[in-house]
Design a protein that fits this description.
The chain has about 325 residues and is α/β, with parallel strands linked by helices. The protein contains ten helices and 14 strands. An eight-stranded mixed beta sheet has the order 1-5-4-3-6-7-14-13, with helices on both faces. Bound molecules: N,N,N-trimethyl-histidine (AVJ).
């Protein structure tokens, strides 16, 4: 199959609401930027490098769980399903499931970065020629329509690995889980990865690596704002910080302004006090119970869970709740 055989469903949002959200965040207290801004081309590369760091156990641990339990997970998904991956990126983790699901009706990667999406869709489609690949370019936090596969699907399964749910504060996480349940429908299923609460030192290390890649990843957000929104952030005047907020069970990534300064973004002036923080990410950590409670609120019932030996990470299988 060549590239032109893949039809893209394009629901990419326009720039205007993005800019309005961005400015609103920079005017709030504390100042906030959505972690979705991390993932430009360089940010995506830095994130890939983070996944290889000795301190960053998440990716490695989740992949091992998926590999060890692939047969069980595939059994939960069932044959002839439509597999919809939210924030599919390079679709790396999906392969272990696709290996076990030769009868899948179709694989639908949903990804905001069009180039990442089309590259990955192309590679998956060459590696699994018997599986129909239907890429959707969309912001997965907003409703989008599923493409229709050639072969009728028995049910829809949402795949959301990576503990990306942790980037959403509880109300937004519940809203996203609801959106997933409305997309999956009444017989739908969800396979989702969640990072677990553990020894704070282990969590802090994972976001404060000695090689400084996470710091680079965090600061790269400012570089992106400079390039894409005509901002003038001085990257030398901000410092990476990652703290464990025990009360809210989350790692918070901040950029600390090392001095009083004013920054211009899209023609708007933004003042920073010395030591003021810009919050770039919340990464919530769950217990099995805290996740299940959130899932119930989002319209899902937990059916299965798989953990690694150390109990660092969980992959859950859930089914849409009866309403
Ligand atoms: C992709 C959201 C799961 O929260 O661990 C990695 C992103 N941030 N290092 C995470 C991230 C800093 C990551 N998620």
């Amino acid at each position: 199959m060549n590239r032109t055989d893949l039809t893209l469903r394009d629901c990419h949002p326009s720039r205007e609401p993005l800019l309005a959200d961005l400015l609103a965040g920079l005017r709030s207290r504390p100042k906030l930027i959505s972690p979705s801004y991390f993932y430009d081309a360089r940010g995506s590369q830095l994130f890939d490098a983070i996944c290889e760091l000795p301190e960053y156990y998440l990716t490695r641990t989740e992949s091992a769980i998926l590999e060890t339990h692939a047969a069980d997970i595939a059994r939960c998904i069932g044959e002839d399903a439509l597999l919809v991956e939210f924030g599919s990126g390079a679709s790396t983790k999906t392969r272990v499931l696709l290996e076990r699901l030769p009868h899948l009706a179709a694989y639908v990667p949903v990804e905001i970065s069009r180039s990442h999406l089309m590259d990955a869709a192309q590679r998956i489609s060459s590696a699994y020629p018997q599986i129909e690949v239907l890429p959707v370019c969309a912001d997965f936090t907003l409703p989008f329509n599923l493409p229709r596969p050639h072969r009728k699907a028995t049910r829809t399964i949402v795949f959301f690995p990576g503990s990306t749910l942790g980037n959403f504060d509880p109300p937004a996480a519940v809203e996203l889980l609801r959106l997933m349940s409305s997309i999956a429908g009444p017989d739908g299923g969800l396979v989702i990865g969640t990072d677990l609460v553990k020894e704070p030192a282990i969590l802090r290390r994972a976001y404060n690596d000695t090689a400084g890649v996470t710091a680079e990843f965090n600061l790269n957000m400012l570089r992106r704002l400079n390039r894409e929104f005509g901002a003038d952030f001085d990257l030398n005047a901000f410092e990476h910080q990652a703290i464990w907020n025990a009360a809210d069970a989350r790692i918070e990534m901040h950029l600390i302004s090392t001095l009083a300064q004013s920054v211009t973004l899209a023609g708007q002036r933004i003042e920073f006090a010395a030591g003021e923080r810009l919050v770039t990410e919340h990464s919530h950590k769950y217990t099995l119970e805290s996740f299940r409670a959130q899932a119930v609120a989002g319209g899902w019932t937990a059916r299965q869970v798989w953990l690694d030996d150390r109990g660092y990470f969980a992959v859950h299988y859930l089914e849409a709740s009866m309403v």
